[in-house]
Write a sequence for this structure.
């Protein structure tokens, strides 16, 4: 439909009309059912303006209406006729001045583009009520184009937001192969990509290409996407619907645009099986007082060929069965309101140009040109009867306002376009898009939200790995590795836990690592403490026995002072093992190794002194020997002190240069933190251990040499055996210490300390205690010297 508001006349005379009767039913195609209603709306608006005392008070608007029958060629003929003042535009050349001030139309974007390009050089304003292609927003190409509907820029982006809102990340897309469909789909695809929505396929066809339509149907049938975005004119949508019904392709979720979502022509007895539950954006329904009554009255007169106050008056009891196939729902006044606003926009621009007022009317002497109307339309801002404000933005479009409608069945089994939300671009961010999800009915009457994804969501604990050669929405869910987590759905990667944390079993939470060290309260710790204290107690008992029997020969033999010092050092050896138990600290780490090194050197020094005493005592019995004066008690004490001081110096150097320190070992176990004492300087540690070993080997060699000296109680043989045990323990300690993990390293060291201490205690003192307690008759000087009589 093309309408031209073109002539301005005084209301004393009647404006010229293009026909003496109102337009008859248009019969070119099903498209024209709506176009006929648009023509009626235009007539209503012009008649209302011509009767107004406030708008153009002494001016009347004339008009001509053309039916293009859905043909761009026919549109061209019509616009040439409008510009040249001849309805048919046959056999006339274009004149220099256009006979029209504005053109209302077209309904489709492609025809509107041709129309705007044709009228552009003449600066004739073209105002469309339904051409939504974003391409028409280019003011350099279409400087005189306006529209009372929003650009598809908003609708296409809103479609992507709608799809994303329901979690549909895998959709199909079909569009009309036209300026309207191609431009709108291009914007949607870009917006969908920004929203993270993947499109499985994009197909297009034109109403004149049935072979492409069949290809589209086949693609839909084979696809896995359960949601289809249809950016189609209602003619193409009707063609697609017929084929989907024919091939019994039902249950899909269609997302529609304003061009077809409320099109009455799509409502058939079988269409609901395909389109039931469809969601889409529709032009807001308007409530313009008087328009509905006018359209119904005009419809009644046209259909029943009757008029009021004529020879064939209309009856209240007309036979409605004659209209059983009529599907033009006059209550869906959506695009009709846009035509109404377009007519009023032209009227208000003329009102401004003619400087009209209610008291003085309009200046009839002003020669109005189309370009003046164009400039005036840019500034126009008015309110229609229903309270809605009308103006044009800098692209010549109206503000984007849509209803979100849902195809539902009413209580009478009729198809209804139920509003379930709205989109209003003029509102603040966060209020633009509102949906009432609870009111939506999904395909096949389901109340549960359909699912359309290429891959199911990856749960926390997994991350997405894209499938090769497929869109980003197609992926596999791979569990996170140990020590990594993903705590959100559809995570793109796993995050490594902080150093002191570890992933739980589900790989969705970082939990603190278990801290491992040798506790006093655990079984192993309790056992080691028990044997430590038992060794201290045993040493104390032996010392008590020796103290009580200090004057007996067996105690006095081989320097009792060294024996008591040895018992004291063994007590310290037992007690130093306690420093290895518990949480390592700076002081405990320095104390444990130094205390161990010094006490054991003191212990071995005493044993070494006793061994030397045995050798010296034997040498002293030889004639002319004065060896004992060179290794008397003073020299024995000095030797013990000297050997011990050397170890003390080594320990001081170690603690000064690079002392041991507490260390969190996170390398041995992935899920544990081992609290241990780092050696600081390994050289210091092995120097301490090596010095102990050197003294032990020296003591073993000397004791071994003195083991067969004549004496009933030769202490050297017991020292030999004790040193053999001591060396065996510490030789096996080295590989066990290096290979034992965590707290077992400490346990091995404590075991070596206790085993060697018990070995010394039992080997050296057990035989003496046996004689003192159980065989006191052998505790005599004669027996010790081997001078008892044999039986």
């Amino acid at each position: 439909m093309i309408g031209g508001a073109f002539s301005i006349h005084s209301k004393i005379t009647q404006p010229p009309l293009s026909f003496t009767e109102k337009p008859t039913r248009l019969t070119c195609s099903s498209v024209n059912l709506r176009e006929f209603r648009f023509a009626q709306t235009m007539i209503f608006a012009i008649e209302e303006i011509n009767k107004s005392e406030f708008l153009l008070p002494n001016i009347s608007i004339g008009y001509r209406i053309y039916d293009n029958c859905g043909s761009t060629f026919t549109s061209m003929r019509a616009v040439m006729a409008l510009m040249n003042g001849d309805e048919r535009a046959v056999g006339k050349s274009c004149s220099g001045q256009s006979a029209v001030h504005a053109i209302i139309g077209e309904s489709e974007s492609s025809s509107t583009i041709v129309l705007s390009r044709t009228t552009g050089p003449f600066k004739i304003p073209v105002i469309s009520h339904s051409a939504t292609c974003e391409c028409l927003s280019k003011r350099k190409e279409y400087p005189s184009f306006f529209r009372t509907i929003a650009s598809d820029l908003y609708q296409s982006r809103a479609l992507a937001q709608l799809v994303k809102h329901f979690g549909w990340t895998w959709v199909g897309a079909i569009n009309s192969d036209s300026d309207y469909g191609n431009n709108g789909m291009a914007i949607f695809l870009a917006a969908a990509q920004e929203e993270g929505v993947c499109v499985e396929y994009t197909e297009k066809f034109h109403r004149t290409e049935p072979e492409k339509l069949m290809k589209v149907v086949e693609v839909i049938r084979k696809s896995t996407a359960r949601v289809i975005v249809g950016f189609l004119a209602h003619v193409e949508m009707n063609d697609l619907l017929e084929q989907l019904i024919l091939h019994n392709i039902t249950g899909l979720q269609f997302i529609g645009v304003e061009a077809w979502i409320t099109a009455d022509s799509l409502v058939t007895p079988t269409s609901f099986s395909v389109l039931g539950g469809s969601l889409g954006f529709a032009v807001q329904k308007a409530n313009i007082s008087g328009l509905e009554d006018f359209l119904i009255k005009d419809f009644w007169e046209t259909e029943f060929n009757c008029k009021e106050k004529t020879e064939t008056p209309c009856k209240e009891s007309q036979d409605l069965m004659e209209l059983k196939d009529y599907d033009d729902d006059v209550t869906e006044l959506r695009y009709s309101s846009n035509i109404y606003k377009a007519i009023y926009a032209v009227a208000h621009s003329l009102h401004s140009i003619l400087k009209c007022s209610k008291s003085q009317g309009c200046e009839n002497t002003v020669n109005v040109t189309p370009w003046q109307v164009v400039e005036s339309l840019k500034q126009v801002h008015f309110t229609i009867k229903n309270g809605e404000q009308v103006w044009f933005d800098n692209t010549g479009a109206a503000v984007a306002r849509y209803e979100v409608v849902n195809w539902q069945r009413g209580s009478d089994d009729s198809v209804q376009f139920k509003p379930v939300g709205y989109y209003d671009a003029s509102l603040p961010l966060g209020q633009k898009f509102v949906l009432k999800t609870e009111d939506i009915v999904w395909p096949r009457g389901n109340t549960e939200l359909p699912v359309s994804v290429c891959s199911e969501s990856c749960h926390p604990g997994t991350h997405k790995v894209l499938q090769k050669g497929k869109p980003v929405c197609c992926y596999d869910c791979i569990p996170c590795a140990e020590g990594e987590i993903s705590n959100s759905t559809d995570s793109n990667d796993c995050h490594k836990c902080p150093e002191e944390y570890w992933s739980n079993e589900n790989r969705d939470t970082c939990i603190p690592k278990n801290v491992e060290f040798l506790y006093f309260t655990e079984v192993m710790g309790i056992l080691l403490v028990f044997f430590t204290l038992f060794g201290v107690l045993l040493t104390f008992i032996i010392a008590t026995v020796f103290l009580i029997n200090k004057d007996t020969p067996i105690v006095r033999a081989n320097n009792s002072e060294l024996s008591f010092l040895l018992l004291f050092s063994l007590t310290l050896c037992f007690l130093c093992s306690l420093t290895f138990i518990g949480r390592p600290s700076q002081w405990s780490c320095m104390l444990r190794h130094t205390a161990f090194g010094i006490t054991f050197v003191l212990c071995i020094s005493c044993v070494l002194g006793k061994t030397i005493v045995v050798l010296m005592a034997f040498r002293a019995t030889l004639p002319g020997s004065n060896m004992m004066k060179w290794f008397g008690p003073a020299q024995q004490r000095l030797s013990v002190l000297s050997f011990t001081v050397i170890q003390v110096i080594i320990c001081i150097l170690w603690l000064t240069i690079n002392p041991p320190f507490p260390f969190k070992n996170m390398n041995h176990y992935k899920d544990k933190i081992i609290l241990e004492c780092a050696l600081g300087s390994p050289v210091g540690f092995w120097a301490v251990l090596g010095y102990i070993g050197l003294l032990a080997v020296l003591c073993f060699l000397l004791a071994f040499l003195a083991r067969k000296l004549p004496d009933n109680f030769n202490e050297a043989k017991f020292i030999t055996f004790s040193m053999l045990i001591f060396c065996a323990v510490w030789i096996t300690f080295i590989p066990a210490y290096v290979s034992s993990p965590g707290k077992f390293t400490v346990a091995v060291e404590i075991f070596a300390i206790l085993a060697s201490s018990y070995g010394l205690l039992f080997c050296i003192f057990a035989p003496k205690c046996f004689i003192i307690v159980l065989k006191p008759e052998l505790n005599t000087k004669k027996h010790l010297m081997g001078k008892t009589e044999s039986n």
User: Anything to note?
Assistant: Residues 118 and 131 are 16 Å apart (CA to CA). The longest helix spans residues 586-620.
